[in-house]
C-alpha cells in the first residue's frame, strides 16, 4: 500500500459539535461498512498528522480487512507548536472541556453518521496521542470498550508543561493509590471499565518506559487485578504480560519492546505486513496495530 493511496483514503469530518478544543478530524469508513460496526479512534503523536499516522500504523488498511471505521483526530500548530495533543493542560484533559470534549464530540458525530455499535468503540494513540488516549479513557470510560496507549503516560499526572517534561523523563511518579484516585475522580463510569493495552520501547529516551508500568498500575485496582501478571507469554519474539480478572478475561496487557526507541512498533514487511516505516514508526517485527485489534476482538 503506497503512502499516497493511504492518504487519499481519509475523508474530512467537517462538523462535530462545538469543538471547544479547536481540533480537526479525518475518517475512514470501508466500503460495505456494516450496521452496528466497530469504531477505532487513532491519535497521532507530535510532529505527525492524521494522514502520516495512518500510513505508518496501517489502521485504515486493517480496518478495510475487518470492517471497522476509523476516526483520526488531528491537532493544529495553533494549539501546540509541535502539533501534539495537550494532554497536560487543565483546560484540555478533563471531561466536558477543551480537546477532550472535541474528541468526544467527533466520536458522537461518527457514531450517528455511520450507525456505530456504541459498545464497540476503541481508542489508541502514540506519545502525546497516547497520553491523550489515557485522558479519554479516564474522562469518558463509559464510551470505550478498550484502549491502547503507545509510548504514552498515565492520566492526570501532569497539569503544567514543567510537570509534563518531568513525567516524560520518568521523574516524580505517583503512588498506586494516587494513580487510581485520578481515574476514579475523572468521571463516574456507566457500568464498565475499558480494557487497557500498553506498549513502550525499552530504550525510549523521549518518554521513559517507567510510564508504561505507571499506566498498568493506574488501572490494576480499577480492574481488581493487583499484583503480578496472570501470565507472561511471548508474541513475535517479545514478552507480553497479561492480567486477567476473576472471570478469566484479559483486562490489561503490557508489551515492553526491548531495544526499541520512541515510536509505534510495526511489522511492515513479510506475511501480514502492515503500515510503513518512518519517523516514530519503528520496524521491529511486531505489528502493534494487528495485535491491538486482535486484543479488542476486531480480528480473529
Describe the structure.
Keywords: Hydrolase, Signal. Pfam families: Esterase_PHB. One of its GO terms (molecular function) is hydrolase activity. This is Esterase, PHB depolymerase family. InterPro entries: AB_hydrolase_fold, Esterase_phb, Plant_Biomass_Hydrol_Est. The protein has 300 residues and is of the alpha/beta class. The chain has one domain (3-295): Alpha/Beta hydrolase fold, catalytic domain (Rossmann fold, 3-Layer(aba) Sandwich). 31% of the residues lie in helices and 21% in strands. The chain contains nine helices and twelve strands. The strands form two sheets. The protein has a ten-stranded mixed beta sheet, with helices on both faces. The longest helix is centred in the middle third of the chain and has 17 residues, at 98-114. It is globular and about 45 Å long. It starts with a helix and ends in a 5-residue tail after the last helix.
SSE layout and pairing:
Blueprint: H1 3-8, E1 11-12, E2 24-28, E3 39-43, H2 50-57, H3 59-66, E4 69-74, H4 98-114, E5 121-126, H5 128-139, E6 146-150, H6 161-168, H7 176-186, E7 195-201, H8 210-223, E8 231-235, E9 238-244, E10 250-257, E11 264-266, E12 281-283, H9 288-295
Parallel strand pairs: 3-4, 3-5, 5-6, 6-7, 7-10, 11-12
Antiparallel strand pairs: 1-2, 2-4, 8-9, 9-10
Give the structure's gist in a few sentences.
One of its GO terms (molecular function) is hydrolase activity. The protein has 300 residues and is an alpha/beta fold.
Amino acid at each position: 500500500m503506497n503512502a499516497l493511496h493511504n492518504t487519499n483514503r481519509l475523508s474530512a469530518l467537517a462538523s462535530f459539535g462545538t469543538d471547544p478544543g479547536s481540533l480537526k478530524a479525518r475518517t475512514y469508513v470501508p466500503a460495505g461498512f456494516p450496521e452496528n460496526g466497530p469504531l477505532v479512534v487513532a491519535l497521532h503523536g507530535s510532529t505527525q498528522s492524521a494522514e502520516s499516522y495512518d500510513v505508518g500504523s496501517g489502521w485504515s488498511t486493517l480496518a478495510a480487512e475487518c470492517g471497522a471505521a476509523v476516526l483520526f483526530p488531528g491537532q493544529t500548530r495553533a494549539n501546540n507548536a509541535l502539533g501534539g495533543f495537550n494532554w497536560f493542560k487543565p483546560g484540555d484533559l478533563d471531561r466536558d472541556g477543551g480537546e477532550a470534549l472535541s474528541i468526544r464530540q467527533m466520536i458522537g458525530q461518527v457514531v450517528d453518521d455511520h450507525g456505530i455499535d456504541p459498545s464497540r468503540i476503541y481508542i489508541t494513540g502514540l506519545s502525546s496521542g497516547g497520553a491523550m488516549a489515557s485522558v479519554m479513557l479516564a474522562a469518558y470510560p463509559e464510551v470505550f470498550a478498550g484502549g491502547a496507549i503507545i509510548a504514552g503516560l498515565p492520566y492526570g499526572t501532569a497539569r503544567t508543561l514543567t510537570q509534563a517534561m518531568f513525567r516524560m523523563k520518568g521523574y516524580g511518579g505517583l503512588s498506586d493509590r494516587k494513580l487510581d484516585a485520578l481515574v476514579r475522580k475523572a468521571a463516574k463510569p456507566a457500568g464498565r471499565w475499558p480494557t487497557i493495552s500498553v506498549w513502550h520501547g525499552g530504550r525510549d529516551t523521549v518518554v521513559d518506559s517507567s510510564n508504561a508500568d505507571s499506566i498498568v498500575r493506574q488501572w490494576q485496582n480499577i480492574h481488581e487485578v493487583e499484583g503480578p501478571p496472570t501470565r507472561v507469554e511471548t508474541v513475535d519474539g517479545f514478552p507480553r504480560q497479561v492480567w486477567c480478572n476473576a472471570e478469566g478475561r484479559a483486562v490489561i496487557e503490557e508489551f515492553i519492546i526491548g531495544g526499541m526507541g520512541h515510536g509505534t512498533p510495526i511489522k511492515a514487511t513479510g506475511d501480514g505486513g502492515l503500515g510503513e516505516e518512518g519517523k516514530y514508526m519503528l520496524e521491529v517485527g511486531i505489528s502493534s496495530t494487528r495485535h491491538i485489534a486482535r486484543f479488542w476482538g476486531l480480528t480473529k
